[in-house]
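To whoever is on call:

I kicked off a structure prediction for a single chain this morning and the downstream step that reads the tokens threw a length-mismatch warning. I double-checked the sequence; it's 134 residues and nothing unusual in it as far as I can see. Pasting both halves so you can look.
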Amino acid sequence: MSSENLEIVQRGFEGFNSGGVEGIIPFIHSDFEAITPPSLASEPGIYRGHDGIRRWFDSFYEVMDDIRWDASKFHEVGDRVVVEFTLRARGKTTGLDLGQDAVMVWELRDGKAVRVDLYPTLDEAMSAALGGPG
């Protein structure tokens, strides 16, 4: 099951990078929940469902262009997928290229993401992936 989950997450990254938030929606379960901690987000909070993920990215699109997730490594941890990545974007007003490293833990059900948690380090993400939900 986890290899299938790994492929789904990889395709989700490709979908996001080619089509933005609408490119990832097909990989998101209607029961989806994402938690963004204050240490990694200007808009920390909990985002639920398709509308929640759109709202999450609206905050990005207000100030950034050319938003991408550049994954450096995908790890299978049981049925979860841990992704080391860099969020890349260009500031709308400054034109500066920005990058922020982080790690996502994806939990899937029925072939779609039901939960994504963000962590600043691989150690924290792996500990969470091994220990249970967020």
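Update from on-call: the warning came from a stale cache, not from the record. Cleared it. Sanity check on the structure: The longest strand covers residues 64-77.
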